[in-house]
Amino acid sequence: MALQRAIAAGLDLVEVSPNADPPVCKIIDYGKLKYQEQKKRNETRKKQKTIDVKEIKLRPNIDTHDYDVKMRNARRFIDDGDKVKVTLRFRGREMAHQDLGAQVLQRVREELDEIAKVEQMPKMEGRQMVMVMSPR
């Protein structure tokens, strides 16, 4: 009966809910339905915000102006909704003074505390100390 009506209307019979008792069907243009679903999927994909991980590289004996520039960039990244990976690289004899590097990362953490939280505490990875921060 429904199939005859669909053919008479020049449309398709689409099963909406096959597990219902009795099964539920609609008489619609199937191509148009698929097109609308595709548009809806594309629209939701456009609205999604991808979270990137931006990296800021520091050194243990960084100068104040250089540090301020790096912090300005870190704030901008966090305000944009991205995570920030703070990498502190040790070269040569700096490896003997890892406490200086830990102090720099502590300073970064305190300065960005109101807008970001520490996702990964500072840890050594070879010759560099890494900390990851994400927006609050």
Brief synopsis:
The chain has 136 residues and is an alpha+beta fold. The chain is built from 4 helices and 6 strands.
Lateral arrangement of strands in the main beta sheet: 3-4-6-5
Which regions have little confidence, pLDDT < 50, spanning 5+ residues?
A: none
Helical region count?
4
Kindly estimate the percentage of residues that lie in beta strands according to DSSP: 25-35%
The biggest sheet, with number of strands, parallel, antiparallel or mixed sense and barrel status, is: 4 strands, mixed
Overall pLDDT confidence: 89
The number of distinct β-strands equals 6
Decide which structural class fits the backbone.
Answer: alpha+beta
Shape: rod-shaped
Helix content: 40-55%
Beginning-to-end CA distance, first to last residue:
59 Å
H/E element sequence? HEEHEHEHEE
Question: Mind telling me the C-alpha Rg?
Answer: 28 Å
